[in-house]
Amino acid sequence: MPLPEIKTVSFAGSGNVASNLAPALKRAGLVIRNVCSRNLHHASALAAIVNALPVESLEDLRMDTDLLILALPDKAIPDIAIDLRRSGRFKGIVAHTSGSLSLDVISRQGLQGGVFYPLQSFTKHSSPDIAKVPFCIEGTSSEIEIALAAVARKLSSDVRFLDSLQRASIHLAAVFANNFTNYMYAVADCLLANCDVNPDILLPLIQETALRLKGGDAAQLQTGPAVRADWPTIDQHLELLKQNPELAEVYKLISSHIVKLKNSGKAC
Amino acid sequence: MPLPEIKTVSFAGSGNVASNLAPALKRAGLVIRNVCSRNLHHASALAAIVNALPVESLEDLRMDTDLLILALPDKAIPDIAIDLRRSGRFKGIVAHTSGSLSLDVISRQGLQGGVFYPLQSFTKHSSPDIAKVPFCIEGTSSEIEIALAAVARKLSSDVRFLDSLQRASIHLAAVFANNFTNYMYAVADCLLANCDVNPDILLPLIQETALRLKGGDAAQLQTGPAVRADWPTIDQHLELLKQNPELAEVYKLISSHIVKLKNSGKAC
Fold this sequence. Notes:
The structure is a homodimer of 268-residue chains. In chain A, helix 5 links the parallel strand 7 (135-139) and strand 8 (159-161). By secondary structure, chain A is α/β, with parallel strands linked by helices. Helix content of chain A is 46%, strand content 13%. Chain A is built from nine helices and eight strands. Chains A and B meet through helix 6, helix 7, helix 8 and helix 9 of A and helix 6, helix 7, helix 8 and helix 9 of B.
């Protein structure tokens, strides 16, 4: 039997994820009951936006809420799950928003719940379009998965059922595709600043490189001196980096992998 | 005294750069006289698009043309410059489109000319908006720089005067910001394919990471487990990569640089 529709939601946490999800859920017609944070000032700021009641402790949550979203740092979530099991008073669904943490942190406490992971980088500097954010759903039962997916579907057109190992691999892949690329952007900025070139000169190229991807085709789109075995250019670049042996090491390692990618067709 | 306006252009080369620039110049009102390629079939295909005459040899170019653009691989350009000097018949401006090659390849042959470098990745797979492509201009005289910049200004709103060392640094920075990021996308694609996740799941994140940059602010936008010293997640990722020690090496090296970036504030 399907679970009743989720209509009321509370948040543990008031950081970047909660600050993006809570207003989106409210706009989608759900009622946000509580925002819980040890920092009541933070809880209050978000609660005011979504017409919720801020609380400092899990004990103060309204217990008759359909869904409690744990939008917290990974290291905080296992202990919160233990607290919820020990108290035994919360009867709704408990879902965390972590890419790395397994479903186990919920299920091994005997809680009914799952994972509600939005695959996007939420920062103070940006407001991604939530309607395009992929939501990765996993549940302690298929009924719960359906109920969580129905909530995600109100926010986004891209909702996927994925298990904990797949989600961990997605999180790892996102480190390469997001964090490591951003590091490469930071290196480029720095190299340009060092020769008095405004780093905004790279923005059209960066955006073209990202926007032409269709998903799964990056290996075919690889360009640059390494993939075309342009050794004079590679030598020139290493000469430009000779004052910076650590960056030269990065340049050589990634270039060697691009050569292997070209030869084998496989990046991993 | 400023040079007369450049109104007629020929191309040596018919690859991706010429195939993007020639039609854009024609649309901007310039006359494309010749497209020269050792492969007459390629020359003819582009020439037909821009209403030009295809030729197989530099000797067959119309010599009364204002500008000859050398849109060729780096390794071909020095010899072409030597040929033009020896023949002595071409009296117009000669400009190459390379990021890496110095102005010297033109000036040391006594040619009047310079560099007309569009900082963008032109491939068969994409047609970037030429109006936003940064053009890097350098000339053997300031009059020639002005004349080349006037041509670039008909194509793009972003035209910059930059010397050969700056241009080489831009090209190096672009390898980090474009080629190395694309490699990271290829790794991510592969990791996802290995666990049966459609790699298109990463596209919104990749695009957000690229589009939120404003130029020069990537270091401040760095996120991920390394920058927040999230060792349990890093350990989990290295465990996921244990069958792939080469990728684990990339993961560790880039993560260690992100930690240094956080501590020092400098990426180079």
